[in-house]
Amino acid sequence: MLLPAHLRSSSGRICSSSSSSSSSSSSSRMHALMRLPVHPVPDALEPPRAPFGFEFLLQQLPPSAVGFFTSLRQQQQQLPLQQQLQLLAAARDFLLQNSEALKDYGAVQPRLQQQLQQRYQMLLQKLDEEKQQILARQQQQQQQAQEEDPQAQQQQQQQQQLAEDEAPLGAHGIAARVSLQQLRAALGVGESLDAATAKLLLQQQQQQQQQQREPEPVRLKPPAVLLTLDDIYGRVYNPQVLKKQLVYYLETEGAPTCRRLLRLNKGVFGKHEALLLLRELQQQVEQQQKKLLLQQLQQLQQQTDAAMAVIFKQREQIQKHLEKQQQQQQEQQQQQQQQQQQQQSSRHRRGRSHIEELKFALQQLEKQQQLAEEKHRQQQQQLQQQAIAAASEAARVLYRGFREHGSFRPKPLNHWKHRRKVAPDSLAPYILGRAGSTAWERHQVTSAFAACVSGGHLFAACKILRLQTEGLTRNARFRLRKAAAKARQRRYTLPAYLKATPADSSSSSSGSSSSSSSRFFGSCSTADVTFLRKVYLSTVRRPRVHAKLAEVASHWQQQQQDLALQQQLDALRARRDAERAKWFAAKGIDLQLLQQHARQLQLQPKEAGNIQGFFSSKDFNLQQWLEETPPGLLRPYEQQQQQQQQEEEALQEIGEE
Q1: Regions of the chain with pLDDT less than 50
Q2: Cα distance between residue 559 and residue 72, in whole Å
Q3: Is residue 277 within 8 Å of 269, Cβ to Cβ?
Q4: Can you give 526-592 as a three-state secondary structure string?
Q5: Most-buried pick from 53, 108, 239, 423 (CB within 10 A)?
Q6: What pLDDT score does 471 carry?
Q7: Compositional bias (Acidic residues) at which positions (predicted)?
Q8: C-alpha to C-alpha distances, 82 to 63, 69, 297, nearest whole angstrom
Q9: Global pTM?
Q10: Contact 324, 280 (CB under 8 A)
């Protein structure tokens, strides 16, 4: 039976005391009580709180009002009073929940419980003090707004304006030495320049001169609500809250902040939840990039339209001017026909040169238009590529964040140990084709190799075998590969023949050379043949080339095995038949005659059924049949010799006649 945490120590002490009293040896020992540390241990002695401080605020307030980690210190000064009151109320509820949970937890160490209660009371007092200060500030603002009259406000405004005109515009740098009147006089703008614009101009100039020189002032004494969040703070354990933060900061700050958030709050999402959330965040990133890309494309289109409008306007003006010049030229030509030939030619030449300039300007505008369209197309493509790259980079950063979060298992560092093992069942005697290659490409490579082999270009064939081995097909071109394999025999026989001829003579002059050899080495010298031999040897030595050339044998392997098996079986049957015939001959039995009679009986099955009628006929003599020599037995040796002599004598008589 499991005991609660606050009773485990007491039960342990009871058991130890009972065991010590039962044994005499342990009665003399001193048992000291173990004192726990003052600070709470998270696993055993920490009270079961409600959600931690930051998580508690996120459940009650929007993320825009809460901020991200220490950004609360900067936002607290900028928030309105109403939101500050909301933060105070949320922190107060959080402290009250912790104190109630501490009471309901049970008997804890009194000292630890007193320390926690004192800290909670101190923080509650600070929250009340700050709340009273905020309320008093609100009342003062309301009273001031009610008491001030409009005339007094106008007078104050005039006085303030005069004071601002005469007073320096700032406290540092140039602004501390220049007033508004001096700046107006220096710029010569008059009263159109107000104090706010002047300060803004001086601030911009000062920022350009002094970039990153002075650090931003940090608040030294933060308010009580921030002290509460800093003192009582922990990781986010609620998946909904963490998802809310991720969605918000992905919109505002980007994927790196989400990755940092996931790294600092580990173990919240499981694998399935992380996959779904990662897909959702990636879709959100894609939507953001699409919106941004649409805005950029619209701006680019506007710029291109403006440039094209200028070009079109210039073209219209030039065309109008050209038409006007052409009309004037026609009128001048009609007038020049009545004048002298010299004046006619000079004026016509001047008008023609002006028209040519206008036409050249039109051509230049057309080129500018083409360049503008091409630039627009390139910029559009570049923006699309940048959007795709940004989306993929954000997705990669989010995936790394979830991997650091603990949802996904990281890749092993020792990749060489986790390399894919080759399954023996998946091995094949063929080389796989190149990834991404099509049937048309493989056909082109094979046809080029066939042309090289049939044309006798051994060097080109070796080059294709070296560089494009994977592109050659394996289920065809059997004769082609057979011809390529025969080149191994040729490279040993050809040099001996070529050494008998001069080095510069061609091998085709001799008729003793074979047609296949002359096709490959028809116009090669001894040095060329030696070089081709080296090329071929270095090509065939490569494992993948050797495997590609051996694919033919592996492709016809089953057929060759069946043929060899049949030949071996035929040889075995012939050997056994010879041994059987020899054994029967030693016993005096003619096995060949018996086999011949058996074949005849198989061919004539009807005659086999008449044997019974042969024995039962009237002409059958049993004694004579028994005295005759059986047809399957060999005759005695003497009878065989007599028969041979009779046959020889008959042959001699025939020869004499």
Answers
A1: 1-52, 67-74, 212, 217-223, 226-227, 229-233, 344-348, 476, 492-514, 516, 608
A2: 82
A3: yes
A4: HHHHHHHHHHHHHHHCCHHHHHHHCHHHHHCHHHHHHHHHHHHHHHHHHHHHHHHHHHHHHCCECHH
A5: 53
A6: 87
A7: 646-657
A8: 16, 21, 42
A9: 0.34
A10: no
